[in-house]
Amino acid sequence: MFQGLRTVLYTAENLSEAVAWYRSVLGEEPYFNEPYYAGFNVGGYELGLVPDGATGAGGQVAYWGVPDAKAAFARLLALGATSHEAVHDVGGGIRLGTVLDPFANVLGVIQNPHFQLPA
């Protein structure tokens, strides 16, 4: 079901400060930078920053690539996970959602038709 790791999201109360810090850490500009999301391409994977949600320890979510986010989400629920954030479109045909596994960990699934593994 999982195709591999795609995206890790980190939250920050001040998105512009987080973008500046990660720009310094990574030595590159974000490929996408809007008030609601900033994305860096790190070795073909997404490091995303969002200005909402929990910050600090536990304020990050790893998203696992799947061919169909809605089907993967339903399967996880059937296997005992509980809904955390319903699957929704975030633009560009990208759909994502999160569940809580039976151990209270946040587990994300992402369907991203634009993602290509590096050659």
TrEMBL record:
<dbReference type="InterPro" id="IPR029068">
    <property type="entry name" value="Glyas_Bleomycin-R_OHBP_Dase"/>
</dbReference>
<feature type="domain" description="VOC">
    <location>
        <begin position="4"/>
        <end position="112"/>
    </location>
</feature>
<protein>
    <submittedName>
        <fullName>VOC family protein</fullName>
    </submittedName>
</protein>
<dbReference type="InterPro" id="IPR004360">
    <property type="entry name" value="Glyas_Fos-R_dOase_dom"/>
</dbReference>
<dbReference type="Pfam" id="PF00903">
    <property type="entry name" value="Glyoxalase"/>
</dbReference>
<dbReference type="InterPro" id="IPR037523">
    <property type="entry name" value="VOC_core"/>
</dbReference>
